[in-house]
Structure formats: C-alpha cells, structure tokens
Amino acid sequence: VMCVDCFEQSTHRFHKYRMSTSGGGGFCDCGDSEAWKSEPSCESHLPHLILEDFSKPQLPSDVYHRCKFVLSCGMQFSVEVINKHFTSDMRSRLSSIEEPTGNFLLVMYNDEVHTFDQVINILVRVIMCTPRQGLAYASRINKEGRAVITSADFRSCCRMKSDIELLSSQDGNQFLEVHVLPFSVVAYQNFSLNLLSWMQNILKPCVEFRSAFVEVLRNNICNGTSPNLLDTILLQDPELWKSARKQWNLLICSGRSIFALFTTFNVDRSSKNWILFWDVIFLGSTQF
User: Which of 64, 98, 239, 241 is least surrounded by Cβ atoms within 10 Å, i.e. has the fewest?
Assistant: First the structure.
C-alpha cells in the first residue's frame, strides 16, 4: 500500500495496479522492503534510506544522553496527562495554582451511537448555539475525537453536562460522554499532544535520535518497571480520544525498529497489547 504522493513518484505507477480509498487510517509502506518484492521506495524517499545501526550512536555523548532524558521526560509526562480521566492528584502535582472562578470547560467526546443530527440538536438545546455552530462542534468531535463546546463556572458546566446526558439517553440510547475539566487540564493535554508531534519530527530525520528513543523504551522494559512505559501507552488506548491515539501511534511507529526490539524483550507478556495496537492503526474506527 502506498499513499498517492509516493505512488506517483515510484516505478509502480507504470505497472498494472488497482487504486482504492481507505477511510480507516493506516501508514504508507513506502521504504518498507518487506512489503515489496522490488522497488520499495519512491524517488523522494530513496536517498534517505540508510541502515539503522542502533549500537553505535554518532552524536556526541552528552547530546545523546540529553536526548534520551528529554524523550523519557516527554513520554512520561504525556502518558500521565493524555487521559480522559485526569486525576486531581496529577493536577496538584503539575500545578499548585487554584483554578480561577468560572474557568472550567465542557468537553464532549465522540461515540459510535449518536448521529450528527442528534448531537447538533442536543447542543442547540443545551448550550444555546446555532445549528451552524452545532454542526461545527459535531464535525470537530468526529474528526478529533473530542471538542470543547463551552466554558462557564463549575456549577453551570455540571448542569449542562447533566442536561446533555439526559437528552442523549432518551429512547434507551447510551448517553453522550461529557466531562467538566479545568482549563489548565485541557491546556496540559493540548501541550502534550504538541509535544508528541514535536518528538515525531525530531525522530524522523536522525537515526541517532531514533536510537535514543528505542533505548529509552528498552531500558524501561529491562528495568522491570511494571507496567513498563510501552505497556502503559498501549493499555491506556481505550482512555484516549482519536487525535491523542493518532499522536501516540505515529510516535511509536517513528521508532521503526521498536516492534522487533519489544517482541525480543517482552514477547509473552505484551503480545496481546501489540495485536491491539496494530488493530487500532490499521482498522481505525467509525464513529458518530
């Protein structure tokens, strides 16, 4: 499987082929020699193919160790913050500043039960938005997995949350998942998503950074931490929304050799987690 951009720059465009569109997500196989009998790379990616030697990092030792430290801290922070059920204990450890009055957000999450029209009608009735605004909220929830639909004081947010759950559960339906979150919590989570994206960008062009990334996860596994970092990332998947799940999946795949590494060290205990992980990547989900 190749994305359109890679396919149009590959020799396979001159072969007999069948083109189809996938709506479930996934990854382009350009550059993966195991996926192709010949010519695995397009013209754009061919010059960058190198044999990754994780045993001999070429960066200066101090830079390499600082990179490991940054990656480790970034992943540990994101694991704790990017979660639907952000605990008060975590919030108190991140900041001792009290939330200002009225600084709470009402966050609605995606599900596989309610239609766009149902969500729009509920939003129009509860938060008094226009149908056009309701459509914008529903579209963002469908695309990102969640959206902030309004802000207010804590009591008002809780009242609107109850109204949404009541209206959405009529006729025996499952109620829409809505959380009342402090502004700072959503800010931490958005920062963590940007942090994961930044880590992906620094891993792509530099084999030494990918080596550091793999070593961080390998050391975590070998040290016997239970659950280890990668296990935690995979097991918390049900607690993630769509955009958060995507960022974690892209980061793990940026490590390239991480699958072989992890199965070498931990194949028995985590095989089910890896099956779940690849199911999430290749099958995707259909929601709303």
Answer: 98
